[in-house]
Amino acid sequence: MQANKLADVFSDNNTHISCAGIIARHSTNTNDIREIALKGVDLSECREVLDMGCAFGFFSRALKGKLNSGARITGIDYWEGYHEHFTKSCREAGFKSEYYCKGIEKTREFNDGHFDLILCSYALHFFPYAIPEIARILDKSGRFVCITHVSTHMNEFMKFIKDCITSKRNSLYEYLPYEELIKEFSDANAPELLADWFEIEKKEYYLNSLKFEYEDFQSFLEYFRFKRSFFIPDDLSGDEELVEEITRSLAERVKSENELRISKSDVIYRCRRLK
Ligand SMILES: C[S@@+](CC[C@H](N)C(=O)[O-])C[C@H]1O[C@@H](n2cnc3c(N)ncnc32)[C@H](O)[C@@H]1O
Q: Which residue, judged by its Cα, is nearest atom 9 of ligand 1?
């Protein structure tokens, strides 16, 4: 599994935005995870904020009314297509912004303690090696707020795909690319990976699932096609017939059960730098 290669899917910024909408509309938990993550913290003195793997600024947008009025939000993401969307999200939140179309290594250029607040939603599994660097560029009294998937993310759907691959191609895969990715950073190893650098002041689970009725199946397919490389092992990536067969099997199942439910729980870590 190569995290960088998987991150290539996000080059299609329009489909990413469309799929984020699909996930939001089909989530059974309608609470705003960003509000839960930031609840009860006084960020009114925060002037320098970093959003790592920011894409279109999902997390930054939730800072509306929370930061110092002169605050600046810096976003880093691989793809230029998010620049305008990120700028708009920050503007609508009431803050100026800067966007770097760069890999996360860009953080090496910031001084020690430069940021008062560092955010990272659904991205740290791509670059867990950056954790020491996050601690270095965070102010001593600053906070690092991370939202990530739980280790059992979509596990029954992953099993469905693995069973399909076994029955249709007679191949056994212990882990799909998405599972390999999540193993890099999830609730199963986050406390251990953060421990040398951060004290976790808040850990909270956000229990959620996706629910699609049969008539919404096309929306699920849009999501599945967008994230195809996360679900289909690399050596089967060119096997169009397999993807069609998986899609047909899933459609039959959803039709007979009249709904598709996929667990999609997340976890929030709000951290302070170890002194
Ligand atoms: C699942 S998306 C999450 C986007 C956003 N944080 C959100 O919550 O909607 C992960 C993002 O991380 C970015 N990303 C992954 N690895 C990266 C890296 N090494 N450097 C910069 N961006 C990266 C991807 O391009 C993608 O936009």
A: 58
Kindly list the protein residues whose Cβ atom lies closer than 6 A to any atom of ligand 1: 7, 10, 20, 53-55, 58-59, 76-79, 103-104, 121-123, 126-127
Give the Cβ contact number of residue 271 at 10 Å. 24
Whole-angstrom Cα distance, residue 83 to residue 54?
10
Nearest CA to ligand 1 atom 27: 55
Contacts of 161 (CB under 8 A, 6+ apart): 176, 231, 232, 246
Cross-sheet strand order for the sheet of 198-206: 96-101, 72-77, 48-52, 115-121, 138-149, 266-273, 198-206
Residues 109, 111, 117, 120: what is their CA dihedral angle, to the nearest 10 degrees? 30
What percentage of the chain reaches a pLDDT higher than 90?
97
> Domains plus CATH for the chain?
3-273 (3.40.50.150)
CA of 257 to the centre of ligand 1 (A): 34
Please give the distance, rounded to the nearest whole angstrom, from the Cα atom of residue 55 to the centre of ligand 1: 6
Averaged pLDDT for residues 185-191: 98
pLDDT confidence bin for 1, thresholds 50/70/90: low
Pocket test for ligand 1, best of 105, 126, 153, 268 (most atoms within 8 A of CB): 126
Mean pLDDT of the chain: 96
Q: What is the pLDDT of residue 2?
A: 84
User: What is the 3-state secondary structure of 38-82?
Assistant: HCCCCCCCCCEEEEECCCCCHHHHCCCCCCCCCCEEEEEECCHHH
